[in-house]
Amino acid sequence: MVASKANEIEAELKHLNRWSDAPLSPEKLENMGAFGSNTMTFEQWMQFVLIPRIHQIIKDEDSFPDGSMLAPYAIRYFDGDPEAGPLHDLLYELDNLINGNEATESDEMENTNLPESIVFGSMEIPPVVFTLIDVLPQFEGDDLESQLQTYDVFLSTLSPKVRPTISKLLAEAAVKTLNERSKFRILEAARSVANGGRAAAPYNHEEAMKRYREEHKKNFPS
């Protein structure tokens, strides 16, 4: 099932004309950051890192790492891209397969693998928030800001009483962050959340779309 989903993602990237025929230079695989954000596009990371890694893990009969978060990252990366909906859906399905099974090719998926719905005003923090906290120290710059925007989505839905807990989680993530600028930014977000404010800076959709189009045109000129 996981291998089949990887093949579907490859097919969709080719359908969108976001599959590169040219190999990736080796230096781009060094210090590439989370989802390749330091040196390549997300589409390139899927092609040259994610998909080969999936097939290698299956070939070696190894286990996938817990907490796959491809879909949440894709939400922000593809924001405003009308063509990316099916690709995001495939990544969401891949997350469910990896997080719900132990890297097997099982054809059976239990309903319990589906993510829990978030109840408005709930005081129960969804497990995905804790998973996101674990990977937060890996992000820098605009990618970090995109991740912080995800916490604002939860804060706007959950009870205000969860703010101290989420603030504490952010502060704990800051302690584990090696990049000093990112550490300061996460601590700033933690203080803001504790005081009733936002985790992320106000989202500028027009500016984000402009950056996305420029990056996409540069990497996929055709």
Verbal overview:
With 222 residues, the protein is mostly helical. The protein folds into 2 domains: 2-111, YqcC-like (de novo design (two linked rop proteins)); 116-222, no CATH class. Helix content is 56%, strand content 0%. It has 9 helices and no strands. Helix 7 (163-175) packs antiparallel against helix 8. Residues 101-117 have low confidence and may be disordered.
Give a brief outline of the structure:
With 222 residues, the chain is mostly helical.
General shape: globular
Q: Which spans of ≥5 residues are poorly predicted at pLDDT below 50? A: 101-117
| SSE topology string | HHHHHHHHH
Strand content is: under 5%
The total strand number stands at: 0
Mean pLDDT: 81
Class of secondary structure makeup: mainly alpha
Helix content: 55-70%
CATH topology of the largest domain: de novo design (two linked rop proteins)
Distance between the termini: 32 Å
| Largest beta-sheet characterization | none
- The assigned CATH architecture of the largest domain is Up-down Bundle
The count of helical stretches stands at 9
State Rg.
18 Å
- CATH-level-4 superfamily name of the largest domain: YqcC-like
Count of domains: 2
CATH class term of the largest domain: Mainly Alpha
Index terms:
single chain; about 220 residues; mainly alpha; de novo design (two linked rop proteins); 9 helices; globular
